[in-house]
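Shipment paperwork, digital attachment
Item: protein structure file
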Amino acid sequence: MQRIKLVAVDEDGTFLRDHVHYDEARFERIWARMQEEDVRFVVATGNQCYQVQSLFGRHAHEIGIVSGNGAYVLDGDEAVYAAQASDEAIARMIESCHDLPDVPFSMLGVNAAYVERGTSQEFFDDMARYCFRQYWVDDFEQVDDQIFMFSSVVDEREVGQKIELFRSVVGDMMDVVGSGEGYFDVVCPGVSKATGLQRLLDRWGIAPEECIAFGDSDNDLEMLELVGCSYAMANAPENVREAADRLAPSCAEDGVLQVLEELLGL
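Attachment content:
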């Protein structure tokens, strides 16, 4: 493998042990070595950028953030790209949200995420783990924001069916991707973690083959294909493990940190 110039990591099921925590002291040692070696660090996630910024604290202004599955990309504090769903796609999704109240949704935009009143508090609180700036609204149609994604979670046994259902709803106006454990996202077409990462690579003058990436879900597949060396987590489903070049220990074992320590000689 040639010299690494960039590390890209998914969050949930990959970098984070339990959707919340990581070994911060261990990461600080790795961060220090990456700075010595001039290695960029990118978080590529379906989560909201404000969640990523909170998680990485004082380093948030130094990392790349590919949030909303590539819909909102930041270089530190500077927004590089923001996708926008078409008016027709948004209208069709809102209509479906009203017609199918058993499938709850959070609607994500540049400024915040939104959940309609009448949706369960349990769903709101669950999504708030990933969307740190989220508000109740009476009706999605009242929201004034640049909308780029709808996120939901259902029984994991039903997620495949729901994904197909919403693919039929939005047609080619949006893409529907699974993100593991019953979660799925309806995103702008042609937008993915790979396209978001590529925007940062172009900005920084880094070639994909100079990058490594870690992931565990279907929404990581294009990013894993883009980079020079890809790692699937041991806890990833079989199709993701087969798509990656190498296997990392599970997220519960801090697999990303283990691999980075080995690669960076720590």
